[in-house]
Amino acid sequence: MMVRRLTVAATALALSGCSIAAVDYGPVRHADYVADPRCTAQPGAVVDGDALPLFFATTRLPDCRTGDISMLRHRGDKIRYGRFAVPREVEVGGKKKLRTPMAFQASVDWWTALQAETDRRQGRVLLYVHGYRETFETTSKDAAQIARMTGFDGPVIEYSWPSQGEVLSYAVDETNMYHDVRRFRDFLKTLAERPWVKEIVVVSHSLGARLVIPAIAYVDRTSSSADSSNISNVILASPDIDRETFERDIEEEVLSPRRVANNRRITVYVSHADKALAASRALHGYPRLGSPYCFDPFEAADLKAKGLPVRCYPVSVAGLTVVDTTDVSRSATGHSNFLRSAVACRDFVDVVADKRARPERVATHLAHAFRLLPDPAEPKPDDETICNRVPVAAAP
């Protein structure tokens, strides 16, 4: 137990960014990064939608000084829009790095292209908001996987804020995430108010939940659309947000009776094996929504006395479903089961498709919480294939 506590404490210190990690302005003036005309998309410029099928909006600062445009960890001066494809492995300075094929678009052209794609489908849009320790490339890879895995019938948008992509920069990521709140909420409001958008599926991972939840509440309060009912299907994967704050606020705003009556629902994927959220809990002092850790020792003792798993979930609210992936957790941290575990991936695909029940879900003592268990008939499923984790291809 002592070793475990020391490990968590050490990880929390790393996540806090309190040691050697720091962000400075850098050796290049930010204006020089974007001086090339390619960083300022011209209205009417042609973008090959077949080659770049996915959409992005980003507040990262781009670097247009070389042949390949790259997205930096610095804050940009505005939201930039564009199209992208699955990242590819390229050689840069003798080292292999991921690069995302992409092209910027003028705002008016981007929204026009998004409408055309939405109109061709069912009026559905999927918006993915990443979490801590991500780069533009890793987020693009995950967004592309979500598109493949779900077969989503509509445009997929990646919203990329300036996460540092480094273990020791958790505090910097928190700072940049909060700095981005206004831009993201304005973007979400603009998307929700488009009359051709019939349904928005919002998927957030980790720290991204702290952008998504207040932004939805803002749109609900301020949107010219009376009910904001097109923001209907909200999925929080491993959310790094205070559980008690979520419980206190959610029924008053995002899952108010009126929103739920208009088909608003939230699915939360949690895991007791999530080491990243255990570290976040140690850092913040309170449990995170994405981890069923029992903060109250009396509640834990009561569950144990009843012979139940010692896992504590958020309180029941109409429209809220909790899916516990502890028993099918994958990877060293268990922080991305919805993209790594075959059982969790199948459940996630169904939730995106608006299927609200699965035979693989096992009921708990709470009506709104379910566990995912390994399938006895498939004890070692092919996670890579089922989750559609296609290896990154080398650039031609």
Quick structural overview:
The chain has 396 residues and is of the alpha/beta class. The chain has helices spanning 2-16, 30-33, 107-120, 136-150, 170-179, 181-192, 209-222, 243-250, 257-261, 275-284, 297-305, 337-340, 342-352, 383-386, and strands at 54-63, 70-84, 88-92, 95-99, 102-105, 124-129, 156-160, 199-205, 231-237, 265-270, 320-324, 361-363, 369-372, 393-394. The longest helix has 15 residues, at 2-16.
Describe this structure in words.
With 396 residues, the chain is α/β, with parallel strands linked by helices. It has 14 helices and 14 strands. Helix 1 crosses helix 10 and helix 6 crosses helix 7. The N terminus is likely disordered. The N and C termini lie far apart (51 Å). The strands form 2 sheets. An 11-stranded mixed sheet has the order 5-2-1-7-6-8-9-10-11-13-12, sandwiched between helices. Strands 4-3-14 form a 3-stranded mixed sheet, with no helix packed on it. It has a single domain, classed as Alpha/Beta hydrolase fold, catalytic domain (Rossmann fold, 3-Layer(aba) Sandwich), CATH 3.40.50.
Please render the helix and strand layout as text:
Layout: H1 2-16, H2 30-33, E1 54-63, E2 70-84, E3 88-92, E4 95-99, E5 102-105, H3 107-120, E6 124-129, H4 136-150, E7 156-160, H5 170-179, H6 181-192, E8 199-205, H7 209-222, E9 231-237, H8 243-250, H9 257-261, E10 265-270, H10 275-284, H11 297-305, E11 320-324, H12 337-340, H13 342-352, E12 361-363, E13 369-372, H14 383-386, E14 393-394
Helix pairs in contact: 1-10, 6-7
